[in-house]
């Protein structure tokens, strides 16, 4: 099923059952979204992501960066990363998303897809630090890309195109019951930056430079 909504019907839950994934459409003007994209392409210290999968060390084509309230250490896919502290632009976007969605976030994973040859395969977000029924707000800038959901049991699919400046909030049973992906799209020649705001459980993370007791190493 592919969805296309009149602005007046937004926000609206894209999932027919077992979760809430609210699509808000464009929350930033074209000019604002272009400005954010230019800023992120120029100033974020993008790095390829690394993971250990089936015992193999993988380096992704897509690049990533982590930001947060403090220099938290996160471990996922067998690798520990340290978050940088918010930039003014990320903080402004976070505040707008929190106002619209009514949730609060303490960290953000940024993804850079250089063009349509780069995507993200089927997965759900379930790192230990996220907790159950996590709330993830996803804001997109740049090239419009398709975003797919697939129910883990029924295999039903739901797809939506995410234009520049748009917001999607995944919450409730979404991660438990559905997977999501950004498929490759060979026609797309422009970059896309995606921000996923998350609320990490602080007990599962550590401020970089502190030991278990909170003392500075
Ligand atoms: O780029 C996107 O829209 C999705 C990103 C995502 O699923 C993730 O970072 O876990
Ligand atoms: Mn994800």
UniProtKB/TrEMBL annotation:
Species this chain originates from: Haloferula sargassicola
InterPro entries noted in UniProt: AlkB-like (IPR027450), AlkB-like_sf (IPR037151), ALKBH3 (IPR032854), Oxoglu/Fe-dep_dioxygenase_dom (IPR005123)
Protein name, UniProt field: Fe2OG dioxygenase domain-containing protein
Domain Fe2OG dioxygenase: 104-201
Gene3D superfamilies the record matches: Alpha-ketoglutarate-dependent dioxygenase AlkB-like (2.60.120.590)
